[in-house]
From TrEMBL:
Gene name of the record: gmk
Record: residues binding ATP: 13-20
Name this protein carries in UniProt: Guanylate kinase
Predominant localisation class: cytoplasm
Transferase recorded as keyword: yes
Organism: Halobacteroides halobius (strain ATCC 35273 / DSM 5150 / MD-1)
Class in the EC hierarchy, top level: transferase
The reaction(s) this protein catalyses: GMP + ATP = GDP + ADP
InterPro entries (UniProt xref): GK/Ca_channel_bsu, Guanylate_kin-like_dom, Guanylate_kinase, P-loop_NTPase
Listed GO MF terms: ATP binding; GMP kinase activity
NCBIfam families according to UniProt: guanyl_kin
EC number assigned by the record: 2.7.4.8
Length: 190
């Protein structure tokens, strides 16, 4: 078999669309792709583990990493910072392993500007009403935070035109099948 560099897949979409749910299910069934863990300054949600779900950092620690250019992308989203560690991604891709990022719209723009050859997948909700319902079901947001997220989501949906693929997350199982098909197709691309 020909030795080749891995592919970088970017899964992005509005907050609450189900990126984490889809990615978790995808990784359970599709174990030959690596998930790149993000660094964040937000507080851990119930059940999240440092080094598994995110690398949790103080704002000062995060800003120090930004100054050292340690992130492939980073952004301030909903008053917290998020970033993708560059070294991990580069090392994994060079070893021929595919990597998938689960990032917001701002981060995807940075990756597009900095990284040549990324494969961008936009995960969209079936409707804004359904998105609001999903965010409410989380039970982790205040009414003001939900309103901000929905306002941002409306703007973020306009960005789908800048992606390679659009997957509507109406049923998690169907969304996973579509993303698996994208991964297989991209691995076969010459």
């Amino acid at each position: 078999m020909l030795e080749q560099k891995g592919n970088l897949f970017i899964l992005s979409g509005p907050s609450g669309v189900g990126k984490g749910t889809v990615l978790d299910a995808l990784l359970k069934d599709y174990n030959d792709i690596c998930y790149s863990i993000s660094t964040t300054t937000r507080e851990p949600r119930k059940g999240e583990v440092d080094g598994e779900d995110y690398f949790f950092a103080s704002e000062d620690e995060f800003k120090s990493l930004v100054k050292k250019d340690e992130f492939l992308e980073w952004a301030k989203v909903h008053n917290n910072y998020y970033g993708t560690p560059k070294k991990y991604v580069d090392k994994t891709l060079e070893a021929g392993q595919d990597v998938i990022l689960e990032i917001d719209i701002q981060g995807a723009k940075q990756v597009r500007d900095k990284f040549d050859g990324g494969i961008f997948i936009f995960l969209a909700p079936p409707s804004l009403k359904e998105l609001e319902s999903r965010i409410n079901k989380r039970g982790t947001e205040t009414k003001d935070a939900i309103a901000t997220r929905l306002e941002n989501a409306n703007k973020e949906l306009e960005e789908k035109k800048n992606y390679d693929y659009l997957v509507v997350n109406d049923q998690v199982e169907d969304a996973i099948k579509k993303i698996e098909a994208i991964i297989i197709a991209e691995r076969c691309r010459l």
